[in-house]
Write a structure and sequence with these properties.
By secondary structure, the protein is an alpha+beta fold. Helix content is about 50%, strand content about 20%. Helix 2 runs antiparallel to helix 3. The longest helix is centred in the middle third of the chain and has 46 residues. The radius of gyration is 32 Å and the shape is elongated. Keywords: Membrane, Transmembrane, Transmembrane helix. This is Pilus assembly protein. It holds the Pfam family TadE.
Amino acid sequence: MRRWRASTEPGRLPEGIRRCHTWVRGHLGQDDSGSAALEFIVVGLLMLVPLVYLVITLSLVQHQSLGTEAAARHIARAISTATGTGAADERAHRVLDSVVAEYGIDPGAVAIDVDCRPAGDCPQAGALVVVTVSATVSLPLVPDILGLDRLATVPVEATSAQEVSRTWREG
């Protein structure tokens, strides 16, 4: 059984396809060689540049988000295991400095809120220490003209809770 295989050579095309091919070439221009590479480069760049910017931006936001989450978790743990109020404050600042250095967070863009439930000094026996760490991520390649760098920021926030042991006592 003989099989027919279409070819791009006009002489080997069936009559109906050959007429269509001739009509298309006549109406769209005779020579379009080399334009596919140019179109690929132009469209590729127009699609690739925003895609790369989006990937970089999302990775920065994710990195800062992980940093704020780590800071909240470790600060809550440091406060709940401290031996007193002064030690808790010192440990919280040391942990924050460590996390800020490790994750490259701007120290001026970080805010910490520590809350003890029931209300009182932190830490205290049986209390729940709730730590909220907030930061802002500046978008890359945004110029500081007209304050655009302050407007082009993404806020990230993380909260962590840690219970202080019921047998805790200041010492």
